[in-house]
Amino acid sequence: MKKRLFLYTIIIISVGFICFFCISVYITHVNNLDNAKKTIIETTRIYSGLYNEETDVDLFVKTNGDTRITVISSDGKVLADSRPIDMNTVENHLNRPEIQAALKDKPETYIRHSDTLGIDLIYYALKVNNPDNNNYVFIRTALPVAKIDSYLFQSLPMLVFLFLIIVIFCFLLVRGVISRIIKPFNSVENKLQSLSSGEYKPEPVIRSYDEINKITQEIDDIALVLQKNFFELRDEKNKLDYILNNITDGLFAVDEKKSIILINSSALDIFNVTMDIIDKNINYMIYNKTLSEAIDACINNSKNSLFELQIKGSIFYVTVKQLSYTKLIMIILSNVTENRENAKRREEFFANASHELKTPLTAIKGFNELTLLNNKDENITKYIESITRETDRMITLIEDMLKLSEIENAKEINPVDVSLDKIAHEIRETVSYTIDEKSIAYEIIGEGTVKAEPEHVYELVKNLVENAVRYNNQNGKVTITIESGRQNICMTVSDNGIGISPEEQTRIFERFYRVEKSRSQRNGGTGLGLSIVKHICALYDWKLSLKSKFGIGTEISVIFSSNNSSNSKPE
Ligand code: ADP
Description:
Oligomer: single chain
Structural class: alpha+beta
Low-confidence stretches: 564-571
Mean pLDDT: 86
Helix content: 40-55%
Bound molecules: adenosine-5'-diphosphate
CATH class of the largest domain: Alpha Beta
């Protein structure tokens, strides 16, 4: 700014001086010309007054000065000239404008080029009458134009020199004045610079102009607010960084061009990369088709996704999610390798323990039945019957546990066409005792075939129907509705029994969870029925849903997807 201000001021001053100089030169020239005209008119008059018929024209025109004197006869012939000219070749002067003007008694000055002398001259002529011979002559005087401004041109170098001195003086003066004016602005500039660099320290400013004082005051106020906000933001960022870098889940964010814009330390460890990965494309870190497609779906269709991914021998549960109000995609990687291994170990233990328990229990049951045959004591019979009941319950429980672990560990499935309505009819027979006891109406609506292992479909329908009967009231109703659509088949087992409260509905599919343990046990429940149903559905990727109203009834639906024709375990 200082340089510019200085430059502009110097340019303006210089242009001003040049204009002033030129105008002065012009005015001087005009004045000189005016004076020259007056001089020439005066000189002509004097010469005219001196002239008479006896005048020797050659002597008359003799002069040492710059003024040229010419005597011209009435017919335009040059009679004498103060300048050495050839009288024989000189042109007739009657048509010269100054002669014509004198002839008309309207003398005037004229500037024109003299062909005779080859220079520019100012001319003035007067007609001088000769009363004796009734004749007249013209007395003409002329002055070289160059002579008019000779003083001006003589003093020109001096003027130019003075002009340069003044310009240099102005230059120094302007520089000093501008420095003084600019000084407070410099301190404002310093303030703004320290503000933008984030290291603002309120310092006193050179107080000179009210306007600047106001600006600096405003800057101080803004700086205080900004500094406060900056510190708050920095604290928040530090907290966020701390949290991000201390969570065990890997976390990173990409923009719509799939460039990584944020990554936490866990993610750096997972992918074995450094912070240099920031601003680089995700492909520099990991190339995985599933992950890439999930991110694309999120960018293009805002579709969030959850899936499993194996990275360097570990299993990660991956969440791809678009951050609200931004175009950023957040990817969270939870390491579930240990969970999976633990779950596997639990399942193995569950299967082994169940198996180990079943053998002695079957033996106990056999010995008990033998004891009952040989026993005649009524009291002991009661105990034996009680032992038989409990042993049966435990065997059922263990069988359910084994079924569950079989389903969980199913490596391969061999699906065949299974008729749902046929199985529903078969199950009617297995639960006929309770149906008859409670006078329950049992209805099967529709028919349909699904592709699965018959054992699995049987277990699924049996558990749903048993519950619908078990948790029903006297004179209740159980309906099995089978609907075959174009894409899939839906089976709904509904009852008008005791129903399930909303808070229990989320838990009843857990192992051994029972709303009312005593009622379940009394009716032969093990707490594993719905777990078995859930695992069968998961095995085939069937959709399981529950609708229930406490005291009104329950409706459990399974949607069998039509693509169950594969003979391997769904992933
Ligand atoms: P259980 O062997 O105890 O029936 P389940 O896993 O089959 O175990 O069911 C879990 C719990 O869900 C049951 O104990 C029962 O409280 C509740 N439940 C299941 N089906 C129904 C139903 N149709 N009506 C009411 N409650 C039900």
